[in-house]
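Let us practice reading a record.
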Amino acid sequence: MNAQELVSSLATRIGLSGLSLAETGACSVIFEEDEVVFEDNNQKLFVFAEIGPAAGRETLYADLLDANHLGHGTAYGSIGLDRQRDVFTLCRVVELPCEYEQFEEQLALFINVLRHWKKQLSEL
């Protein structure tokens, strides 16, 4: 499936009518309190979310880098720092075409990892 087909199938699965990628190739979905952005870019679907504020959390940098190492603490995603907004982010790339079941598994892992790191930030 291509990016549009994956997003449309996701919308059907979770009961959102009319969800599709905008002309820019992006859209977002809120899963409970977690906004996840999907962006189609050259046969890759970027799955992106904000983890939380970075300011004052320098003590967590070593843990974040360790999690990034070989993707073992990010479900093969990547944690980054958006300096403009001063927030940590989580991103995962889905190679296209992709079967929907595989996409849903990757998305579930992504959301679990996102929630884990949000909890880590909130406990500081």
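A brief commentary: The mean pLDDT is 93.
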